[in-house]
């Protein structure tokens, strides 16, 4: 059980809370004063330019959510009814849901449980085993990590299929000097409240392709052809409101500071878990290339993960079991899957830990002390 000191700490330690300060309030207040509250006005386009620049892309199309950005990416590529889209099995449901909502078929690809990246053999089996060429390959950046994206780009190019980088929580990370969001034909971000940069709710598709960007903007604004109410397709209202964009612009100004604090937190966790017998840190080796958005540990078993979350909860510390494989869950069981056991091995054993950039050193000390006092950690019964 947690010590009396930990149990009696008055304020709970949050998992991932937004880092909002006076600059964000001032920018949103200015947006209200300017009376730009819908998707019209200068705030959305300014935010699109800022994020596209962070990803070293020519175009950014802001959306109401990260899921909408993924859906828009698929629509822009012309992906629809019965098309195959390769998707990691170990990911958040939105990656697969966007494919399904576009009318396409997710094909689940296993992951490597050591790197949390795609499993190359499972990917090769899918590419050679399907009865027709996939319409796209979607690579999801794991939390705080970028996989071997140059490799997946080359593989997709060799098979003549577009690569979509689902960089939902990866803004600020890099791979081989290239920023997250700069890989593949197009990429998407999420700006949900728990992300490193938040707009409250929102997302963005980024690309260098002029035609794809134009198509995405068109679909996101109901596919309206002009000022009159004429349409050339069944479009969507995926646009981001200006209030959200104003918040995002202020967050962009503070991104470097938030990244720096996240990396400090991740470094403390990594040092704590080094040499630990019952808990290991996520496969995060190069902190300078990581945005350190979410720090996670890996337990011996799923029961241990659940027990650890309960133990931290008693201590007033929020933690949460992370992703589980999708292919064996009821909404996705009917879809093709190429599995090698990696997703099953990792599912239920990963626990996400408090990682907010607002986390104080005192609260981080509380978390580490609670982890140290976990009975399983000490070889004691829970």
UniProtKB/TrEMBL annotation:
Gene Ontology biological process: polysaccharide biosynthetic process
Keywords assigned: Pyridoxal phosphate
Active site per the UniProt annotation: 195
Gene Ontology MF annotations: pyridoxal phosphate binding; transaminase activity
Modified residues annotated as N6-(pyridoxal phosphate)lysine in this record: 195
InterPro entries: DegT/StrS_aminotransferase (IPR000653), PyrdxlP-dep_Trfase (IPR015424), PyrdxlP-dep_Trfase_major (IPR015421), PyrdxlP-dep_Trfase_small (IPR015422)
Xref: PANTHER family: DTDP-4-AMINO-4,6-DIDEOXYGALACTOSE TRANSAMINASE, TRANSAMINASE
Recorded family membership: Belongs to the DegT/DnrJ/EryC1 family.
Protein name: dTDP-4-amino-4,6-dideoxygalactose transaminase
